[in-house]
Amino acid sequence: MQPIKVYADRRSQPSRAVIIFCRVNQIDFEEITVDLFKSQHLSAEFRKINPMGQVPAIVDGRFKLFESHAILRYLASVFPGVADHWYPADLFTRAKIDSILDWHHSNLRRGAATLVMHTALAPFLGLTTSPDAVKQAGKLLMQSLGRIESVWLKGDAKFLLGSPQPSIADLSLVCEIMQLEILGNDVRDRFLGAHEKILIWMDNVKKATSPHFEEAHELLFQVKASMLTNAAAANQTSEPSTKLRIASKL
């Protein structure tokens, strides 16, 4: 059986979720890097894989699939070695996991991704930012973190829905929250510091998927270090070409 092809950029939180899932469940795959910062996701070649021009995407034989949640559902359902807790056969539990994944895109992801874009990535790449977008994204992110704690991490729940083991929803949401690392420790802690249940839950997911979780996030921490270093250097100069030089170094 040929390994599946996973088209991904590890700076992308959904890409990391798919890669970690494959590693943890020993799914044979070939990782093909699609560099978002070089706009490779917009190339004609990649659009043959995903016409939407986004990562991740997979190719399994003749079958092509994009959207990370759809990919995770597919992998959990098709590969026999995947443990049931990731996407249970029980339809009631599966439906609840689906509801979390659907909620994720319009709430947690919209808040976290927009905040990271306008606070860190846009300034880093010399793109236009919106203070209003930052304000609204921060508000939505805080609301989303609160909802996760009050709805799906009740009591001493180790994972979402009170499960003793992680599901694809746990993995997807935690990878999303990890993107806040790019903002730096102070800003990250401003959002996560008051959410003890979130921090404990994230640590549980990391431990359950170790060492693959750490390995998949190495590039994210490299980007974080690079951005913080270059931001400090940029603050010490007023040369107009600074942002262009910074963007070229990453």
TrEMBL record:
Q: Which InterPro entries match?
A: Glutathione-S-Trfase_C-like, Glutathione-S-Trfase_C_sf, Glutathione_S-Trfase, Glutathione_S-Trfase_N, GST_C_Theta, GST_N_Theta, GSTT1/2/3, Thioredoxin-like_sf
* PROSITE patterns noted in UniProt: GST_CTER, GST_NTER
Annotated GST N-terminal domain ranges read 2-83
Residues of the GST C-terminal domain:
90-226
Name the Gene Ontology molecular function terms of this record. Answer: transferase activity
Identify the keywords attached in UniProt to this record, alphabetized.
Answer: Detoxification, Transferase
Q: Name one GO biological process term.
A: toxin catabolic process
Q: Does the keyword Transferase apply?
A: yes
Q: Which Pfam families match?
A: GST_N
Regarding protein family, the annotation reads: Belongs to the GST superfamily. Theta family.
Task: Identify this protein by name.
Answer: Glutathione transferase
Source organism of the structure = Panicum hallii
The upper taxonomy is: Eukaryota, Viridiplantae, Streptophyta, Embryophyta, Tracheophyta
